[in-house]
Amino acid sequence: MSPTLRLAITLALLPAAVLAAENPDQSLVRLDRINVFGNLAEVKQAAGSAHYIDGETLEKFAYRDIHRVLRQVPGVYLVEEEGYGLRPNIGIRGSGTDRNSRITVMEDGVLIAPAPYAAPAAYYFPTMSRISAVEIRKGSASVVAGPRTTGGALNLISTPIPTTASGEIDVSVGSDATLLAHGWAGAMGERFGGLIEGVRQQTDGFKRVDGGGDSGYGLNDAVGKLRWVSGPDAAHYQQLDLKIGRNTQDSDETYLGLTDADFAADPNRRYAASRRDNIQTEQHLYELRHLIELGDNVDLTTVAYRTEFSRNWYKLNDVQGVSIASILADPATYAAQYGWLTGSTDSPANALRLRNNNRSYYAQGLQSVLGLGFESGAVAHDLEIGLRLHRDQEDRYQDDDRYQMLDGQLVRTTDGAPGTQENRVGDAEALSIYVQDTITLGRWILSPGVRYERIDLSRTNYSTATGRRDVVLSVNETEVDAVIPGFGATWLMNQNLSLFASVHRGFNPPGPASGSESEKSVNAEFGLRYGRDALSTELVGFVSDYSNLVGTCTASSGGNCTIGDQFDGGEARVSGVEASLGYDFGQGGALSFPVSLSYTFTRAEFRSSFNSSFEEWGSIEDGDRLPYLPEHLLHAEAGVVGERWRLALAANYLDEMRSVAGRGAIPAGEATDSAVVWDLSAGFRIDKQAELYARVENLSDEEYIVARRPAGARPGQPRSAFVGIRLAF
Q1: 427, 314, 176, 206: CA torsion to nearest 10
Q2: Residue 14 belongs to a domain with what CATH number?
Q3: Alpha carbon of 716 to those of 435, 447, 512: distances in Å?
Q4: SS3 of residue 592 by DSSP
Q5: What is the pLDDT of residue 47?
Q6: Is residue 354 part of a domain?
C-alpha cells in the first residue's frame, strides 16, 4: 500500500478512535451504513428518486431474472440476452446497458463486479433467489456509492441472519425440465449467530440446436454467514460479521443469434455451429464486516472484502475471418459462411474459429463509513465520511481453436496453444473518499455531498507468439483524478407530500489503456412524492447532459473492434419523465386489491456530429437518437389477496429500441421489437408454514426480438410455467 493510501485511511478512521459512548440496547438489530438506504423509511425522505423492493414483493412472482424484477422500477432500462437474466444488461436514466458497466452494482453495499474498475463489463451477477431486497438510487445520492455516478446505484441485499431460529425451503419445477431450489436456515443467540444458504438451478433451455445439443444451464450458489455481537456490559456495542460464498455455473449459451428470416420461422432455433458454445464460471466471495457504535449518534462500519472469479466462455467467434454479426446481417453476401453456420453445407478445414475466452479476476478492498449525528441550534446533521481502498485485476489468457463443419457436425482441425490469441493483464488501484451531510431544518432536508476518485489503471501486454509471460510487449498506464459533487433537497410540504430536486456530476472512469477520457455529465432531477394510507405516487423529470459520452467495445456489444477500446461520442443529452403509482382498493378489508403502475418516457440524442468506428454509432448527426434506449416503458400490475390466497397479473410494455444510432424510421434489421409481456402468479397458503404457488411467465407466448447484439436477433423467453412449494420453519 502506498504512503498516500496509508495516510488517507489513518485520517479517515482517526476521529472514531477518540469518541466516547454509552452502551446501546443490545436487543436491536443494527443496519450498517454500507448499504445505500438500509430501510424503506429512508427512501421516502431521499433527496432524489429512490426505490426499495422488499422481500414480500420479490416473493410475489419469485422471479429468478433480475430483468423481470426491475421492470417495475421507472427509469431503469434493460436489454435481455439469454432469457434467464444470468448475464443482465442494466442501465439507469440512459447510462447505457452493456453488462451493467455504466452503473454501480453492489451486494450488501460492496462492489460485486469481478473487476469493477479494470473490467466492469465482466460476467457475474448475484443469484436473485438469495436476494431479500433491492435498492435503486438515482440522482445526487449516487455519489456515495461510486465510482459510476451517471445513472445511479443498484444494491442487492442478501438474506439476513434471522433474529430467531428459522429457515425456509423453496422448490419449484417447470417448463423445459427446470428445477429451481433455494433453502436457508439460521439463528441468532445472545452473542453468536449464523446462516447457511444454498441455491440449485437447472434447465434444459428453451432453444433447440440444429442436429441436437444442449441450451440450458446449471447453477450452484452457497453462502455462509457468522455473527458475533458484544455483551450487554460492553462499553460500546460491536458487531462482527463474516460472509463466505461460492457460485458456479455451467451454461450452454452462445453469442450466435439468428437472421430475421430464421427468427420469423422459429425464434427459438439455434444454428449447428453453436453446439459447442459453453461458459463455465466460478466465483468466491469473502467478506468481514465490523460495526461499532461509539456513542448515541456516532457509529463506524468497516468491511474488508475479496472476490475471485474465473470463467471460460468457449464460443464461435468468426467464420473465415468474417464476424458472425456480419454474416447474420447479410446472409446473401455471405451465403457460403451462412451455410456452414447452419450446418447445411460442409466447410473447408479451419473455417470456423472457436475461442477459449479464458479470463480470471479478483477484486479486494477495504471500505469504511463513519456516521456522526449532531445538532447545531435548530439544525440536525447526519454526516457520513466514507473511504474505499480498492484493487482489482483482469487476466486474459485466451486461444483459438479451428473447426470444420462436416455433415452438420463440428470437427476440430486445429488446437490453439494457450495465450496465443490474447495474453494481457489489466490492473486498477483506487482511492475513493466521500463526504455527505443530511441536514434537517424544519421541513427541509438538504443533502450536500462530494466524492473524490483517484484511479491508477495499467495494462500489461505479453507476447501472443509464445503465449508465455516472459516477454512484455508494452505497458500502458492511465491516471484519473475526479471530484464528483452533488446536492439534493427535499421539502416536506406536509406529512403526505414532498418535493425534491437534485443535481450532481456524472462520472464514468475509462478502462485500462483505453485512450479515452472519462465520461462526464451534469445530471439533474425534480420531482414530487405523495403517500397517504393506501396511495403512493412519485413523478420525476430528469436530464443528463453529457459533455463527453463514451462507448466501450466489449464482446457482448458485438462489432468489429478491439475488446476494451473506448470511443468518445462528444455531447449528448438524455431527458425524460418517470412516474409511479400504487393503490390498495381493499386495504384493511377481507380482500385486498393492490394495483401499481410505472411509466418511463425517454428522449436520448447526440448533440454533436462525428464519425465513429464504434458500430452502434457509425456516422452521427446532431439530433440522432442513441441506440438501445426505448422511448416508452410501462409496467402495470393488479392483484387480489385473500386471507389464505393471492393472485397477481403483471403486464410489461417494452418499446422498440434502435440497435444502431439514427433518426426517423428505423431501417429493417436495426431494431428490437415492441411487445407486451404478461406474467401471472398465484399462491395458496396451506398453513402458517406452507404455501403452494404457481406462475406463468410470458402468458400470451409473445415472440419478440429482445436484442441484436452480440450477433443476430435474440428471442425473449417463451411462455414458461412453474409450480412450487415454499416451507417456512
Answers
A1: 90
A2: 2.40.170.20
A3: 43, 41, 34
A4: strand
A5: 67
A6: no
